[in-house]
Amino acid sequence: MKRLTILASAVVLLLILLAALVYTVVTNRPPELAGTYLEPPVNAADFELTSVDGTVRKSDFRGRFVVLFFGYTFCPDVCPTTLSRLRTAMDLLGPGAGEVQVVMVSVDPERDTPERVSSYAQAFNPGFIGVTGTPEEVAAVAADYGIFHAKAEGSPETGYLVDHTAAVMVLDRDGNTRMIWSFEITPEQVASDLEYLIEHV
Question: pLDDT of 66-79, one tens digit each?
Answer without folding.
Answer: 999 999 999 999 99
